[in-house]
Amino acid sequence: MKFRKLVFECGLIAASVAVISASSAVSVSAAETAADTENTGSEQDETENSETDQSPQEVSGEVSEEEVSEEEISEEENSGDEESEEKTSEGQMSEEQTSEETSVWTDKLLVIVEEDSSLNIRKEPNTDSEIVGKMSRGAAAEVVEQGEEWSKIVSGEVEGYVCNEYCVFAKEAEVQAAEICATEATVTTDGVRLRDDASTDSAIYKVLEEGESLTVSDDAEEIESSWVQVQYGDDVAYVSSDYVEVELAVGEAVSMEEIYEQQAAEQAAAEQAAAEQAAAEQAAAATESATAQNSSSDSTAVSASSDDLALLASIIYCEAGGESYEGQLAVGAVVMNRVKSGSFPNTISGVIYQSGQFSPASSGKLSRVLSNESATSSCYQAAQAAINGEDNTGGALYFHAGSGNGTVIGNQVFY
Questions:
Q1: Which end of the chain is more exposed for a tag (fewer CB within 10 A), N or C?
Q2: Contact (Cβ atoms closer than 8 angstroms) between residue 118 and residue 166
Q3: What is the DSSP letter of 182?
């Protein structure tokens, strides 16, 4: 029994020793693993710290030069492709953004009505609203707010709403503008020469002033970029590109106030033209009548040229422009009485320009009336009648304003 017990105890001791050995082995193995890990990290640190100085072979002896080279090339190619794709994508986006940002038509519209019509600009977005302005074909506007049927716009001095049906927007507006709007070259300084050919040695048609606009020829020939081919009447001419700004002649809105003012100005101009035409016809008829009478036996008529008639009518205008026809005829009669008297020069111009006689002749007023052709038709009629021998003064040689002895006609006394 003691022997068995001893053997059992020895077995226990042996087992304990084995367990202790195994535990020690485990501890040692763990310690070695940790040490290996620390060494590996240290080696990696050393490798990372020395990458710029060591070749791939020195960093890792297990990777061949050929394998490292292929891996590096593959990585570089992939990296290059990715960078190229990113740059291309960024470039395209940049170009598209720049195109959208720099286009002057991004927030604009263009009117595309027929040539002789116009588009109404209304105060509110409906056809019953007040018209505040108009836009012709080829006029442009800034779009404040684009709706489905109506858009709010600003053009020139006008703000309001236009119907979208007669407009195009943004890119389409830019394309249409290039097709329907003329291109103009505006002169930027005085003294620019318009020539008959694209050369400084060519003939000069005219000298242009700053602000003048010329229409660029639709069928402009291919010429040097330093010249712009423009329309000059039915021909073409050339102007240096250094002294003009070339751009599309895009129109803008006109307010109703401006339209009314323009209509009034046109009507006044038409009335003035009609009055001038009537005066010219009347003067021509008077001249014809004078010529006929001068050829007759009437000794009281005086031969006079058209210049004499204009001069006499002008002095009558200066001295009695605000008087009645009788007052105007009286002034003309005084001049003609002097011509026939023998005590004064024997010509109309001699009498009128005689020193110290007619103040408008010496002050310059007569000269201005002549140059501006200001004499009225009634002054011409009175002048012609006086030339023909009519005299309502009783042979007077003098006159003055106010009261006195003599024949009073209007506000003047003739004696």
A1: N
A2: no
A3: P
